[in-house]
Amino acid sequence: MDQLANSTLAEPLDLVKLALGERVFIKLRGERTVTGILHAYDAHMNLVMSQAEESIHIVDVTDDGQALPPRVEKREVEMLFVRGDGVIMIAPAP
Amino acid sequence: MDSASPEPQANAPLAGSPSDFLKNIVGKKVKVRIGSGVDYHGQLTCLDGYMNVALEDAEEWANGRVTARYGDCFVRGNNGEYVCVLEQGLRLAFSLSQSVIRSRRLGWG
Amino acid sequence: MASTILPLELVDRCIGSSIWVLMKNEREFVGTLMGFDDYVNMVLKDVKEYEVTAEGITETPLGQTLLNGNNIAMVRHTSAPSPYRSTGI
Lengths: 94, 109, 89
Description:
CATH class of chain A: Mainly Beta
Number of helices of chain A: 2
Helix content of chain C: 10-25%
Number of strands of chain A: 5
CATH class of chain C: Mainly Beta
Distance between the termini of chain A: 13 Å
Helix content of chain A: 10-25%
Oligomer: heterotrimer
Order of helices and strands of chain C: HEEEEEEH
Order of helices and strands of chain A: HHEEEEE
Strand content of chain A: over 45%
CATH architecture of chain C: Roll
Number of strands of chain C: 6
Number of helices of chain C: 2
Largest sheet of chain A: 5 strands, antiparallel
Strand order of the largest sheet of chain A: 4-3-2-1-5
């Protein structure tokens, strides 16, 4: 993917096109991340992913306002549609 | 500076409009600040009219430290608060080879 | 009616001089305005970013910067190098 990106990248969406069929890592609003196989996308960055794992990063606050250490809640989804307006960032999965 | 290979952008006039600016900074190290205060530093590969950007050798910065690295990454335009050109002195994680290339471009090498 | 000034005309007159931009969030920018577009996305140079936090005001110098017009609340023409230094906050 790297060498392709260097030579044939005309616009940012091409980077997403190159990631089709690959495992990607996406960051969403609301402290959420998803990794999964990217099947489809459009100009809004609506995405269809399979074998997706969603991680929600939660910071609980005690009654007296103390922030507890962050915890991560995970769930697995076989097939997932992500609405584009929530997408912040897309990268190949590490 | 080597006169046989002038760097066209080195002395180009400062870009006026936002679209000129974006055209002129392709290939440079930039910082993209998203609304939540997280920064993405990386080489700007390309961009489009929505201000979507593709970054190469991207680093995610939060609270003054690197929190992740991505070879390539796509940042959706609407989340961007600003894009700025990283200057050498401000860049903490600047690799040596990049510093050398950059200083040659600027005529300091 | 002859003296009517459109908002973007006012911004246009600031090109080349120092402006102070207040965002909807707790951030402010001071820099020299190089240009802008219909969305009031702005290109600034010699920028200083101010962030108002509980611990105080942090100041970050930035190079040439494209500021997204989406989150801009107010723009002021200013000759002071720092709005905070001049107001004593």
